[in-house]
Amino acid sequence: MPIPLFILLTRLKMTEYTDVPKIAKAAPAEQSAERLNYPEIMQSSGAANLQGDTFQRAASLPSLFSKRDSYPYPSVQISENVFTNNNFPLKFTEADLRQEIQRSEKLKTEVARPIVRAPEVRETGDRTLAPAALALDTPSKTYEYQNLRNRSAAHSGPDAMLYVPKNFDSSKPINLVVYNHGFGSTARSSFRDSELGKQMANAPPNTVLIVPEWQAAAGSRGYNQGNLSKPGAFRSMVEEVFDKTPELRGKTMRDVSKIHIVSHSAGHAATETQIYQNGLSSKIASITMIDSTYAPQRMEPWIQSNIRELANGSKRFISISNDTNSQNNGQASRVEQMLRRGGLSTSSMLKDFKNSGLDERSLAQYPIIFKSSSVAHNSMPKTYFGAIEKASKRW
Description:
- It contains 12 helices and 15 strands.
- The chain has helices at residues 5-11, 38-43, 94-117, 187-193, 196-199, 233-244, 268-276, 300-305, 307-312, 325-341, 360-365, 380-391; strands spanning 33-35, 46-51, 54-59, 77-79, 122-124, 127-129, 141-145, 160-164, 174-180, 207-212, 256-264, 284-290, 316-321, 349-352, 368-372.
- The longest helix has 24 residues, at 94-117.
- 34% of the residues are buried.
């Protein structure tokens, strides 16, 4: 129990302060240190011995030192020798108390100064730390990769494009979006013309985008996938690209939590290969066909094998059509039958061929969507890709 102030002032007549040893800037490993709450520093009437921005304070009132609060700036510390009634070394008069209050006011600015002027990383003991409030954003980055070992064929342009989002955190699981372009496009031109990088700003945190050049003859009107038609080739491409990217080096498909595949137009051919020949089925959380239902029956084995997950919303299938309205409508009817045969509610499915808009609420609410659109075929990725990424934050 603290000694009352009036007793303290009556009994103590010496005006000298007991010397307080300074603590080193980097405390020894065996010395336990307590961090002090900054508001407590500002309010208390304490004397301090300052060395750099590390200090030890000797307070005028023992009760002030019964607290050991945390202070978020790690280089501002108080030693383990916290003074109590039993080992309190200071003897003073009321005048000394007033002087200590004045010193405390000065201490406020001296303690605050390092926080304002030293945003750099600080070392404390064997740890390197930086104030969280002063953390800087890391910008998004776009990479082009050519001459990959794992590619469809040799190209004059990139074999793959990769987008790494702002503030990517390599310690967290990776969300991977795969975009498969259509005929007449390349990995580079589709990324540029559909503004995929800009639209990726809508995606959930830690979402990486890869745009593979899946055509052996990039930009042609052919389905030849070259080496990427081989089992496991696309998976190997992704892991090779990861290893060449500074933010992803050392990562593999094991570090990917979910895969979202978006196919535009003829990109359905690459999508089918990626789904069935690369051992990725368990990680594929959604498939989006943007006017890409040219061979709908090829997608239906994946839909059938995941029909329960699609019905409960743990996976997603979205098909938006214009040129492929007829094929899309037929597939919608077959998926509806799959749900009924499985004893599953069709309320999880949106079937709408009225050419009305597709809003974010519908994209978030329905895990199975068949929708027609009046948007021109080549403009659809620019219209819908970002909306789908934004809605995926709620999936």
